[in-house]
Amino acid sequence: QVQFKESGGGLVQPGGSLTLSCEISEEILARNAAAWYRQAPGKTRELVAEISRGGSDTYADSVRGRFAISRDFARNMMTLFMHSLTPEDTATYYCNALDWRTGTLLSSWGQGTQVTVSS
């Protein structure tokens, strides 16, 4: 089964920025939507941002205007640029792709990458 790998998390002060990366093959990125999710302690996993097959992006209300999702076919990579971070953004972030026919997730959840926003 395909497995995606997240990286780029860390500790950042409120108001700071961080960039997350996810290794996804060009083939999967080109054929399917891909997305970032996050799960904070004691909370359910939530969708943060999604990029469609055609390249259009959507965001959760809580991050719209602060986060930006992008993909790079040449580097087999999906990226989440995060700006103006707040403590409420603290969570483990995961990436995944969604089957273009069914919308189901293509992979089980990986390790994720931890983002901690704290002064």
Give a description of the structure.
The protein contains one helix and ten strands; from the N terminus they run βββαβββββββ. With 119 residues, the chain is mainly beta. The strands form two sheets. The chain has a six-stranded mixed β-sheet with strand order 2-10-9-4-5-6. Strands 1-3-8-7 form a four-stranded antiparallel β-sheet, with no helix packed on it. The chain is globular and about 40 Å long.
**Percent in strands:** 35-45%
Helix content estimate? under 10%
Distance between the termini: 39 Å
Reading the helices and strands in chain order gives EEEHEEEEEEE
Count helical runs: 1
Principal-axes shape call: globular
Number of strands: 10
Strand order of the largest sheet: 2-10-9-4-5-6
- Average per-residue pLDDT, rounded, comes to 95
Main beta-sheet strand count, sense and barrel state: 6 strands, mixed
Please state the structural category.
Answer: mainly beta
Low-pLDDT regions? none
Gyration radius over CA = 13 Å
Topology summary:
Layout: E1 5-7, E2 10-12, E3 18-23, H1 26-31, E4 33-39, E5 46-51, E6 57-59, E7 67-72, E8 77-82, E9 91-98, E10 113-117
Parallel strand pairs: 2-10
Antiparallel strand pairs: 1-3, 3-8, 4-5, 4-9, 5-6, 7-8, 9-10
Short description:
The protein has 119 residues and is mainly β.
Q: What key attributes describe this structure?
A:
mainly beta, four-stranded antiparallel sheet, 119 residues, six-stranded mixed sheet, globular
